[in-house]
Design brief:
The protein is an alpha+beta fold and 472 residues long. It has 15 helices and 25 strands. It folds into 2 domains: 244 residues, Enolpyruvate transferase domain (UDP-n-acetylglucosamine1-carboxyvinyl-transferase, Chain, Alpha-beta prism), CATH 3.65.10.10; 207 residues, UDP-n-acetylglucosamine1-carboxyvinyl-transferase, Chain, CATH 3.65.10. Helix 9 runs parallel beside helix 11. The protein is globular. Bound molecules: uridine-diphosphate-2(N-acetylglucosaminyl) butyric acid.
Length: 472
């Protein structure tokens, strides 16, 4: 009997070997994929369907300037709700997730002005003295990260009502840790009709100790923002150490918050009475950078990458070198990645920062399809993040999945085909696969890429790739 979530049956799932012949053998895993695609198809049809065609075979050479971080921008924009006045965000990447966040913030009563800057957009976000307290389903369902308004709204207004984000292609993704944390700060939390409704008794949260049961990035960010205006001291234990959490803490400190320990697993926040707006710079996107680093190694290319947070990419740099790529630091935010020899297989496991990021797992899998031998990838963050496996198999990759581990047998020549993207990083991996596949790879549901990769087509074509957007 099929159960949800899929990890509940993980022990019982048989080994899935992905080759063309097994793709029509419908099991639970395949059904989840089909359901996701149907949901996506519905969303896509309401937007007009665009795809990307990649003509494979080019080796990437030249320089790419990378963008600001998506996953830093989103909590930062939401944290502006904490202070009335005009906040200025610089180097904001041009992404659909940013547009979705601004839409939600405007719904809550903010005004936004977006201007093109030399490196990314400059966003002036004006937060009024009165704000709406409800984030409705229609807006939250467009982007899970919308739950990041919960902490700021609750602590600023004393109440908040936010639609539960629900699951997504990569897993069920509950927010129980966010809610448990807010309760530790005194919030009364109730769930009604698909919404989480929170109230701070007396209108203000009070500091408290929060022990996260697992490392959660947006959970830590929600609590950081909530604690900034709470009365007294909050301590977050087992906090996420991701650079995006540090970026948020840096912004909050610029607004007047008192925070220590960000970047470690114990963060202390001394609540203040008010915060003020300021000017912030979005840091570089480590996952975008990592994706281009893998692209250089994959295509046997030679890329100079600018605006790269190299210090945050140790885990990736280490395995890239083990696999046979050369990674040369050219200062703190520039590097050169190239490869001339064969690729070696390297096995890895995803884990919270500073370990290998789950957001780079799908891209790594493509690289390993070209390595000479067998490698494994164990996914330990999300229970369902192998949706790209059947799609890579359509291109000819030899892959099998057992529980949370995928085995990749390389090297396999890939052949262009029509493939369907299921989520943001899966989409990126399909573009990478297209770069080395013979002929043309057509990637459908390209709006996933627009969520998180600023001008992917322009940047890749600028270094010799052959991509174009076409209507289906
Ligand atoms: N989890 C719970 N309960 C919670 C919170 C998390 O069970 O209350 C579980 C999740 O289901 C997951 C694990 O804990 O199994 C870690 O989830 P986390 O909360 O850290 O993920 P997130 O904050 O929702 C962010 C990024 C993701 C990235 C993950 C892991 C943003 C907006 N999103 O998600 O980015 O994969 O951290 O690093 O910051 C992406 O950019 O493509 C993306 C998915």
């Amino acid at each position: 009997m099929a159960t949800w979530p899929p990890h509940a049956t993980r022990g019982g799932l048989r080994r899935r070997v992905y080759r063309h012949s097994t793709l029509f053998d419908c099991t639970l895993f395949d059904r989840i994929l089909l359901e996701t695609l149907c949901h996506d198809a519905h969303r896509a049809s309401s937007r007009g369907v665009e795809c990307i065609e990649v003509e494979g075979g080019a080796s990437l050479r030249g320089t790419v300037h990378l963008s600001g971080s998506k996953n830093a921008s989103l909590p930062m924009l939401c944290a502006a709700l904490l202070a009335e006045g005009t906040h200025v965000f610089q180097r904001v990447p041009r992404l659909r997730d940013i547009a979705s966040t601004l839409k939600l913030l405007r719904h809550l009563g903010c005004r936004s002005e977006v201007n093109a800057g030399a490196q990314g957009d400059v966003i002036n976000l004006t937060v009024g003295d009165t704000l709406g307290d409800e984030a409705p389903y229609e807006l939250v369902c467009e982007m899970r990260a919308s739950v990041l308004v919960l902490g700021p709204l609750l602590t600023r207004l004393g109440r908040a009502k936010v639609s539960l984000p629900g699951g997504c292609a990569i897993g069920t993704r509950p927010i129980d840790q966010h809610l448990k944390g807010l309760e530790a700060l005194g919030a009364r939390v109730e769930l009604h009709h698909g919404y989480v409704e929170c109230v701070a008794p007396g209108g203000r949260l009070r500091g408290g100790d929060v022990h996260f049961d697992m490392v959660t990035v947006t959970g830590t960010e929600n609590l950081l923002a909530a604690a900034a205006l709470a009365q007294g001291r909050t301590r977050l234990f087992n906090a996420a150490r991701e650079p995006e959490v540090v970026a948020l803490a840096t912004m909050l400190k610029a607004m007047g918050a008192r925070i220590t320990g960000e970047g470690t697993s114990e963060i202390t926040i001394e609540g203040v009475d008010t915060l003020k707006p300021a000017v912030y710079e979005v840091p570089p996107d480590r996952i975008e950078a990592g994706t281009y680093m893998v692209a250089a190694a994959l295509t046997g290319g030679d890329l100079t990458l600018e605006n790269v947070p190299l210090a945050q990419l140790d885990a990736l740099t280490t395995v890239l070198r083990e696999a046979g790529a050369e990674v040369e630091a050219l200062g703190d935010t520039r590097c050169r990645v190239s490869r001339s020899g064969p690729l070696r297989p390297v096995s890895l496991t995803t884990a919270p920062y500073p370990a290998f990021a789950t957001d780079m797992q799908a891209q790594w899998m493509v690289l390993m399809t070209q390595a000479e031998g067998e490698s494994t990838i164990s996914e330990r963050i999300f229970e369902n993040r192998f949706m790209h496996v059947p799609e890579l198999a359509r291109l000819g990759a030899q892959l099998s999945v057992e529980g949370d581990t995928a085995t990749v047998s390389g090297p396999t020549p890939l052949e262009g085909a029509v493939v369907t993207a299921t989520d943001l990083r899966a989409s990126a991996c399909l573009v990478l696969a297209g770069l080395v596949a013979g002929g043309v790879t057509r990637i459908r549901r390209v709006y996933h890429l627009d969520r998180g990769y600023d001008d992917l087509v322009g940047k890749l074509n600028g270094v010799g790739a052959r991509l174009k957007r076409v209507r289906e």
